[in-house]
Each structure stands twice: as C-alpha cells, then as structure tokens.
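Q: What would this chain look like folded?
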Amino acid sequence: MTNKPLRRLAQGIAVLCAATLGLTACGSSDSGSDDTSSGAGDVKAALAKGGTITVWAWEPTLKQVVADFQTKYPKVKVKLVNAGTGNDQYTALQNAVQAGKGGPDAAQIEYFALSQFALGKSVTDISGYGAKGLAKSYSPGPWNSVSIDGGVYGLPMDSGPMALYYNKKVLDEHKIQVPTTWDEFLTAARALHKADPKVYIANDTGEAGFVNSLIWQAGGHPYKVDGTKVTVDYSDPKVAEFTQVWQQLLSEHLLAPVTGWTDQWYKGLGNGTIATLPSAAWMPANFATGVPAAAGDWRVAPLPQWKQGETASAENGGSSMAVMKASKNAELAYAFIEYANKGAGVQTRLKGGAFPATTADLNSSAFLDTKFPYFGGQQANKIFAESAKNVLPGWNYLPYQAYANSIFNDTVGKAYVSDTTLTSGLKTWQEAIVKYGNDQGFSAGS
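A: My prediction, written as structure tokens:
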C-alpha cells in the first residue's frame, strides 16, 4: 500500500529534471527496449559473491524485508534510504542522475512517473534478468504500467484496484441502496442531499489521478505513446461517459467541496456527512487509523459501472521498484527487487499492510478470507481481488505525466470552482499537455 501523501502527488508534483524528464534534459531520445546481456545466472553469481546496494524507498514495510533478505543472503548488505516521498525523492533521484553519482541501485517509483525515467534512460530494462517472463505473476494494471516500449522497467510493488467504500449506517438511515452504476450514484446523490442538505454522496475538489482512473474505467484512452510520439485526446466518447455524470454532480452541488486528506475530510468520513468514497484497495488502513470512531459503519462494494451489468475497473495509485541505470551492482539490485516484490518479501509486506499486485496472493484463500473488523467483519479482499482482475487493459501514462498532473488544477480544476465545464477544462488541459510535450522535444499532437 502506498501511504497517504502519495495520493496527492497527482495534484502538485513538480517537474523532475531541469524542466522535466524531457528528452533534451535527460538523455537519448531513442525509443525501444534497452536489453541487458545479464541473465538469471549472473544474478545467482552476484548473490554468491555478495556486495552492497543502496535502495531508495519510502514504504515502511521494506525495513523488515531488508532484514530478511540480508539473513538469507549474508554476503549482501542493503542500505535502505528514505530520500523523501514522491516528488522529494524524484528530485533527489534526478539530481543524482545528472551528477552521475550519489544515486541508489534501486528505487521506488510510482507507476505514473516510471515512463519518464524509462524514456530518460535512467532506469534499466530488466527483461534480461528474467523479468520478461513474470507477466502472469502480476495483475494486469500494474504489469502494464511497468511494461514500456517492449521492455520491463520495474517490478510492481503494490496495486490500487478501485472499489466503493460506503457508510452503511448513513445509507440505511435514508433508505438508499448502494449504487451499482454511476447513474444510480447520481440518483443517490440527489436523494441523499435532499433528505439532509448537510450530507453529500462523496467529496471532490478535483484530482488528476482520480479523473483519469474513472476515464480508464469507462474504457477511455486519452493518451497514446509510441516512443517520442505522444497523442492526447480527451474528446474520446468514453471520456464523455464520465463528464456527463460528473458534470451533473458538480453543477447540482452534490459533492462536498472538501479536499482529501485534510482534517475536514477525515471529519466528514467520520460524522457521516461524506457517505461514500470511490477509492483504491490501499484505503482500509487509512480508515482504521484516520477515522477510528466510524469503525463498523463502513463497508466495501464494487466500483459503480458506466453501463449496467459490466464489471470494469481501473487502478488508482501504486508503485514499482526499478533498477537504476547507473547501478554498479545491477544484478544484486534486481535480486533484491524480485525478492521484495515477487519472492518471500511479498508476504512480509502484506503482513505490514501492503496490497498485493501478485496474482498468487490475490487468489490465495488466506488473503481472500481475511475479515476486516473495521468493515463489520466483511471479507473486503474478495471485492478488491475481483476488481484487480477486472482492470481494463491498455491504459498508458504520458512520458511526462507528473507535469501534466501538476497543471490539472489550473485547467480542469476550474470546473470545480467556477462555471467552466469539465469538457472545456479537459480541452484546455489537453492543449497545455500537447504544447508542453512539443516544447520538451516530443512529437505531441491531439
């Protein structure tokens, strides 16, 4: 599970290179795989020989993983460094890339930012170490995010399949059924707010990652990336499925104007004035620690659908672990990231609260049968695991997604605070994304 500050990186992450991880600032503009000649045999030999590697990551469960790894491979020393979360780490990481020294051998990198590092040639294609054959070991969404231009540039650490968290106590009080479609969600929003003007179906003040997740679930593909050729198109009819419903929620003031992860947000989740939360599978621990007084009131349901009878889902958040191109111990670095994200380290991380991207764990009875006291004893992992299986394939992030997300509030965000429509805001965002891409040396169009 990725911790809470990362949920907000999509709104305000700064650029990562001199201006971004663009072509002119970060290396070759060549596309395609950067195959390594090393293989699984080299990894085993490196473990037998031993050495020291440095890993930059913020996930707290890795502390125990490092201890266990070093016990298993006593000749290997792993220096685990928290260089900051998200933008703080990315800035430090890119500074090290530019300086040619001081960087780690492996690093935690969120899915939306990984392609920037891959295109900038600062992370290694790990296909040659055996990663190419691991596709079936992971759920589709995370695996797609680490598979870039025919190469594999990281191993999935976790997963963020989406679901609908709902306050059963509030919905039951107002005799409102849990919505199974977004049209039903809109109807429920109207009924709930009419019954009690202090209560809202959900909160939303605009977040790029959330908007893209709902468009992803609708089957939209606003981003197409082929090497340095980038196409951005928010006029996709599937995008309209999202805007038609969400615009009504905004225009009718049916969403609480409360920003996530604030004290007001936690208060709303706790006192019932925010009745549902469409979010990802990493959210339960945040409920338990941030809204303890509402334990037993909340439950989990599948994400509402854009069309009745469908089961489509999408990802929201999550991280990979990549081997840095500058590493002088790449084989050891790969051995560690495989141990942490596919081997025995996965169980350690799950016990610490991570949500798996590994299909074996998503399908295990021990995982699926886990009861969540916070959700009234519900076996919520069954819903999350089914969501992971139903994540629609083919989603692409931009090779400069961090920058695109950073200007969301200046474009689409206006629809949440003014008469600007979502459609208009998305068009403005599209134009700005295309212009920026061309300024950075990409061939961008719409």
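Residues 422-439 form the longest helix (18 residues).
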